[in-house]
Design brief:
Helix content is about 45%, strand content about 15%. It is of the alpha/beta class. It has one domain: Aldolase class I (TIM Barrel). It has an eight-stranded parallel beta barrel with strand order 1-2-3-4-5-6-7-8, surrounded by eight helices. Strand 7, helix 10 and strand 8 form a beta-alpha-beta unit. Helix 4 runs parallel beside helix 5 and helix 9 runs parallel beside helix 10. Bound molecules: coenzyme A and zinc ion. The site of zinc ion has 8 residues, from loops.
């Protein structure tokens, strides 16, 4: 290949890559579920409802309100039905909830849930620890949920595939493991998939590759990316996903979050950091940062622990400061 040919090829490659990059993203705020499920301080029902209501005013596409899981497994969300019943539903916002089994579906339907987020792990040991089932048992359970949901009429059923980028017990997870589960669940009626980096093991090139392979095997099926910042790579991973065409992101206000069955798992990617980064790049998130930052300021009191937050401390990128007073003396002519 001549240098000219190489230059033209690289220009057309970057043009086609650029065409992937969307000018908007949708943010799914998962703090009330992924965040609160792991907090030691019990957040009372009124406060949960108030949190979701406040988040509803920020412009999120979706809010994951709670999970209809066993109260023995996740005691912090034992009041799921009451929360879902009492929230003020803002038109245009999709209110979702995590559902691991048919019992969870029944509870979700009783109180009205716009979209279900079914869950199973990509890796065997994490599935057994988190859901007390083998992956084959989970698959059968999720297929029963999908069948029962279809009988209720159109009810979107996304599936979150945990540990899609690595398992804290089994180590690396082969992309084929994830793709195979997604294919089987799509055949059974799943309407979308969330690739979850449950314990923050993902790295950017890996994220890009798996997202691209999902698009190849299930073209047009919506993919959401769910990142944890355990090893400081969450924003880099989000950027990598966006660069290959992903437009849906899970995130938790204040970086709340974790997985009760994944030792060492820390918070989700901070919603405010994700929104700030994309807005800086001119990508529309739909989310208003000012009311969101007000909510984030109140989170330490809600969960009764400090939540270090660089963005709150520094302010947004163009938050400027008065120049030092001595500058006027040192440069009197400058005006
Ligand atoms: N909602 C409410 N209660 C439920 C339930 C649900 N979705 N599923 C099961 N239960 C109850 C059962 O009725 C039973 O109650 P009992 O002891 O009073 O009879 C008890 O929980 C145990 O039921 P069983 O079917 O044996 O469940 P299990 O103990 O094998 O646990 C799950 C399986 C999936 C229910 C449980 O592991 C779970 O909820 N995991 C969620 C994990 C999670 O959310 N992790 C974080 C997100 S990735
Ligand atoms: Zn998570």
């Amino acid at each position: 290949m001549t240098q000219e040919e190489a230059a033209s090829r690289s220009a057309s490659e970057s043009a086609s890559r650029a065409a992937y990059k969307s000018t908007y993203i949708q943010v799914n705020e998962v703090g009330p579920r992924d965040g609160l499920q792991i907090e030691k301080a019990m957040v009372d029902t009124d406060a949960k409802v108030a949190l979701v209501d406040a988040l509803s005013e920020c412009g999120f596409a979706r809010i994951e309100v709670t999970s209809f899981t066993s109260p023995k497994a996740i005691p912090a969300l034992a009041d799921a039905q009451e929360v879902m019943r009492r929230i003020r539903r803002k038109p245009g916002v999709i209110y979702t909830a995590l559902v691991p089994n048919v019992r969870g579906l029944e509870r979700a339907l009783e109180v009205g849930t716009d979209e279900l987020n079914l869950v199973m792990s990509s890796s065997e040991t994490h599935n057994r620890a988190n859901l007390r089932m083998t992956r084959e048992q989970s698959l059968a359970e999720l297929k029963s949920i999908l069948r029962a949901a279809a009988e209720q009429g159109p009810l979107p059923c996304n599936v979150s595939l945990s540990t899609a980028f690595g398992c804290p017990f089994d180590g690396d997870v082969a992309p084929t493991q994830v793709l195979d589960l997604a294919l089987r669940l799509a055949e059974a009626g799943a309407t979308g998939f969330t690739l979850c980096d449950t314990t923050g093991m993902a790295y950017p090139t890996q994220v890009a590759e798996l997202c691209q392979r999902m698009e190849t095997v299930l073209p047009g099926v919506p993919v959401t990316i769910h990142l944890h910042n355990t090893r400081g790579m969450a924003l880099a991973n989000a950027l990598a996903a966006w660069q290959v065409g992903v437009t849906r992101f899970d995130a938790a206000a204040g970086g709340l979050g974790g997985c009760p069955y994944a030792p060492g798992a820390s918070g989700n990617v901070n919603t405010e950091e994700l929104v700030h980064m994309f807005e800086c790049m001119g990508v529309d998130t739909g989310v208003a940062l000012t009311p969101l930052m007000d909510i984030v300021r109140g989170l330490p009191a809600l969960v009764q622990r400090a939540l270090p937050n660089p963005l709150l401390a520094a302010g947004t990128r163009l938050h400027t400061h008065p120049a030092p007073a001595w500058l006027a003396e040192r440069f009197p002519a400058a005006s």
